[in-house]
Amino acid sequence: MLAALAGAPPAEAAAALWDGMVGTPYAIGSAVNTAAVLLLVAAGFLLAHRAGLVNVGGEGQICVGAVAATAVGTALPPSVPPALALPLVLLAAAAGGAGWAAIAAWLAVRRGVSEVITTLLLNFVGAAVLVLAVHEEALLRQPVTSSETLPQSAPLVEAAHLPLLGIPGSPATVAPVLALAAAGVVALVLHRTGTGIRLAAVGLSRPAAHRLGLGVDRLRFSALTGAGAAAGVAGGVLVASAPHVLDDGISSGYGFSGLVVGLLARGSCAAAVAVATALGFLVSGGINLQLAAGVPASLTQVAESLLILGIAGTAIWAVRAARPRRAHRPDPTSPRAEATP
Amino acid sequence: MPPPQPTATPALELRGVTRRFGTHTALDDVDLTVAAGEVHCVLGENGAGKSTLCHLVFGTLPPTRGELLLDGAPYSPASPAEALRLGVGMVHQHFSLVPTLTVQENLLLGRGRRLRPDRAGLAERLGEIEQDLGLRVDPAAVTGSLSVGARQQVEIVRALLDRPRLLLLDEPTGVLGPADVERLLATCRRVAATGTAVVLITHKLAEVMRVGDRATVLRGGRVVGGGRIARTTDDVGTLRDDVGTGALSAADLVPLMIGRDVRMLDPVLAASVDVGATAAAPRPGVPVPGERPPAVLDVRGLVVEDADGARLVDGVDLAVGHGEVVGIAGVEGNGQSELVAALSGARGPSAGQVLLDGDDITRATPGRRTALGLGVVPEDRHHEAVVPALSVTTNLLLGRLGAYRRFGLLDRRALRADARDLAARFDVRAADLDAPLSSLSGGNQQKAVLARELSLDPLRCVVAAQPTRGLDLGAVDDVVTRLRDAATSGVAVLVVSSELSELLATCDRVHVAYRGRLSGPVPTDAPDARDQVAHLMTGAAA
């Protein structure tokens, strides 16, 4: 319907959307790559959220992570083997994102400043750092040879490129594997380790966790910097994928979409994988909608957002319906467990 | 409908009222009749359905079955607003006043949709209430600056503004000191004398005996008994005729409440309902007074200040020796909470010293205190003692998860086994130890806290703040027994409580907190210990 507004026949628009989602190996590959970035951000979000912290700063952490990855990736000598170059670039990205989140984490732990505010505001600063880095030749901008030289970095050394999965016609890199591994590690930490339980305790009740001798400040700090590291790796993945350069539009909202994934997943890493995949395909289809059906980019974004809202709304509905409806606050004096002998 | 006859028609009548929450039946076929002008006590332990009854009458919840009648007319309020309009006033267990507003503003809140609040009308009505009932409030005072007793008076006055036909009071004495309780009970009688029906919801038998005309006892959601209350002494000053035929005495009511005979009760338990002996039961191993053992917990000149520099704890000296049980009595808000917070490490003191077996723990982290053998049962169970949403197992062992690492992961089998063991030792009754702790009853939650704190190794000292608050008698018995057993095995025990009878029955000596200072100690084996402590609670020695 929105497509019709923009002058494209709805049927054609739907076909374009579908084509862009699953029509070609290329479409599927790019959708999976997008999903990987979203999943990385979401996995970090889930980690921090378990400790009661809401990381809204994915976008800024991606930017700084990407800048750090580029700095390392362009500075490496071409002779470095991929087995060394790629981990170095991703580590730099993680460190960049973690460092960026550490500012907010420190403020939250030491000064009691809401991390929602600080991470959100640091997004703008992070984006500005990225713009500065790609516009200044002294920083990361490629050598300016003419007035047409784009404000972007030089390409990363060959060894630092993310390898493709090797599916013919598909741009899919190892990023999805990486993201699934990250989600797996987060799931393992949250559900199978003492740290996961401690994080949950801190997230649910800081006074009780403190009373029981847990390192509340340390746990909160690590959880938020961990989230930043995951988002930073997402930034690193973005620059290490084709076209292997850093430009100022590199994130294009992945940080916020990743946040949406994390929120919709409601604490479950498996759900995050599913939501990230769905959203990845949606984004990829939206790009084709612009290209094939000539729908303006802003309209596809509106359509995507409406779809997300719709999905989220029905999901919440379904969850509500599955649970018995509570007509009231549970009576604190009712002896719910006294039926057990 | 025929006009109601003033004597024959009860002010409130419940007929076969049932309320279910899922599979749990909170109220089961309850009949209740409250006459105008009487004080009707609804008595029962926690979980007996008292609060649910309040919710039904005040319109917060609808009954599942059965009907309510107000002055003979069918009554089914859809909301508290409707209940208020129909003449039902309620004083909640927890105050619902805005602390930053003045009393006048609080009283005017939610009264009609007038652009200009009716201040003159309010002043006039306040005058009437003062004249009729002797209840005086200062309209200009900021509510937050008032004492707890004064705030409750504001609550009562607010409930009386619209001349209700029925006044509900839900556990009104829980937070009051002895003098305020007296005043409240007297107020109840005076309100009843004006023809208003007063329903007093309580679990304290002493109050019922003092003020009630009739009582209804609830147990497990059912009415298990009730009737007119016998009076031996009349300390409220109202003339009453009591011939005693068929009237209920305290000894009749206790077995109804708890389903056991008074003689079966532990002396502590009996003391807590004010029947039977109040003297401490002799315990083996209690040191003879006079030869005080070396202090395990030694507090010297402890000062805790709030953000404005006001001294909440003002130079407290306290020593608890091996095997001693020391109590701190006092009306709440006299620095007890802050003292416990400083002892547990939740709050840093600004001066003074805390020693545990010679180790200076004044500024130690809670983890270090635990390692040195300090068990703490915090005052606010849900806020500080447990994480209700986590499983029982986790709550029992959260502080020692480090001991359950296997290949970097958590050894959940060992964790469960140990939790099961602890739960069995401390009689924590849970259908499923993996279920959230909030699924347990209050008593079992507190037993879980005790299990965690008393199973510390080493355990040198236990600080228990309001350990029996909100628990039913059976659980109170269990908690008190555990603490005394710990003392018998050589642990120093400090109990902070506002339940004086319990302290007198549990402790070797009792200090009284007043305005951040401790007075006493009063040895509990002194014949007039209760009077001495009650006297100190009014601030006589401070």
From TrEMBL, chain A:
UniProt main location, coarse: membrane
Subcellular location: Cell membrane
Alphabetically ordered keywords of this record: Cell membrane, Membrane, Sugar transport, Transmembrane, Transmembrane helix, Transport
The keyword Membrane appears for this protein: yes
InterPro entries: ABC_transp_permease
Bilayer-crossing regions: 23-48, 60-78, 84-109, 116-135, 172-190, 221-243, 249-265, 272-293, 299-319
GO cellular component: plasma membrane
Pfam families: BPD_transp_2
Membrane topology, from the record: Multi-pass membrane protein
GO molecular function: transmembrane transporter activity
Protein name: Simple sugar transport system permease protein
Automatic annotation (TrEMBL), chain B:
Alphabetically ordered keywords of this record: ATP-binding, Nucleotide-binding, Sugar transport, Transport
Domain of life: Bacteria
Pfam families, sorted: ABC_tran
Species for this entry: Krasilnikoviella flava
Database matches in InterPro entries: AAA+_ATPase (IPR003593), ABC_carbohydrate_import_ATPase (IPR050107), ABC_transporter-like_ATP-bd (IPR003439), ABC_transporter-like_CS (IPR017871), P-loop_NTPase (IPR027417)
Annotated ranges, domain ABC transporter: 12-245, 297-540
Name the UniProt record assigns to this protein: Simple sugar transport system ATP-binding protein
GO terms, molecular function: ATP binding; ATP hydrolysis activity
